[in-house]
Model the fold of this input.
Amino acid sequence: MRACVVGAGLGGLLAAANLAKEGFEVVVYEKLPYAGGRFTNMAYRGFQLSTGALHMIPHGEKGPLGRMLRSLSAEVEIIPSQPQAMFRIGGRDYEYEELPSIFPLRDRLKVAKIIAMLKLGRGAGSESYRSWLERQIKNEIVFKIADSFTGWSLSLSASEVPAGEVIAQTRNINKLGGPGIPAGGCGGVTQALVEVLESEGVRLLLKQRVETIRRKGGVFEVLAGEKESFELVVSNAGPKATAQLAGEILPAEYRRAVSRIRGAAGIKISVACKKPMLSHSGVLFTPEARRINGINEVTNAVPELAPHGEHLLMSHQRLAGGADVKREIELGLRDLRELFPEFKKYCRVLAVQVYRNSWPVNRAASGVHLPPATPVEGLYLVGDAVKPEGWMETDGIAAGVEEALRHIKASY
Amino acid sequence: MHVHEERCVGCAACMPFCPREAISVYGVAEIDRERCVGCGLCVAYCPNDAIEEG
Done:
């Protein structure tokens, strides 16, 4: 059986490695000169920046990605963040468990109840996380904390994400724990997966753009320079690009639905620091900042991501649709200068990266649950548009690949 | 090199690969024509087909 994987992003690499282990003869086509898509490193002035994702895996080694990497024998160490997260409120940093204590007594019980409800996973219909919260409490700080969490992890505001999605995610955090930082950053994971592909005999073709996917005599005919035939096609190119490549073999109704999928956009600022700005390797949520939702300093766990003695700080902020991008960047930079009084003295901005349109944070916003199976038998989707409920970021991608593989194994 | 502003998202994936450090990105990529030697690496590394030779 021959399988074609379109795109060597994280979803494509994971799918290819798993299919090879299942005995498929796999070819991966990647239009860019490198593997990893928005999940790999780019070296810049001695720092390991990333093409997209932050150097962080939401549930560390215990989540779907960590588990899948182990099952594939992809050798990459994932260092747990310690603490998982802090929240900067009123100039002080608090742990999650400490949050009720910052509220006046009348709200303290309500906040404790919200935390308990999130843990138990009860009480949300199809409403947004914001309106679910508004039914429990009227307190601006609570809404800001919620926005910083969803902005950091999903690049959405609390009013753009279903409450059920956040509750399912919180359940997974409680079960599996918080983030971890892969040794070598995103590129460490990509490299380990490329090595698995090599040892499994997968053909990984870089700078090889797929032009069309057609169906002929019960097989897929993939045109990428030359024509090749496959029994199975797994696309990591995103639903919209896949619909374009596959054209008429997909029903018009499906193509229309796919064209309406909304993505999520964000801005990442990478900063070189002469001394650490954070004392830990977890996420610092910044609910009171103008734009920045959260920050991490991965060199506190993996010093190799910066030149000796220096540190790499990365901030992330949601980018709202229709916003003036340059102004959003300016506000993000202002936040950084205000959050860290010594910023001017010890820090310099390495890169400002915007993720939107054809190179977004997520090709489908969290809360949209696109199944990996398409209406065409043998054509599957993987990647950040195919995240099952409750799974965010790269763990969502791995959980989506797991679901695709379950389907494929049942039908081949 | 020419940047198509409507296709460039400002992801800066081109920036580190420029051997002349001729690219700066602030919402959109800008190429310093004085420094650019026309090697075309940025064209290959752009995920959005936003840079063209010429």
Observations:
- Residues 265-355 of chain A form a domain with the Polyamine Oxidase; Chain A, domain 2 fold (CATH 3.90.660.50).
- Chain A touches chain B at residues 32-34, 37, 42-44, 49, 51-52, 207, 325-326, 329, 351-360 (CB under 8 Å).
- The first strand of chain A starts at residue 2 and ends at 6.
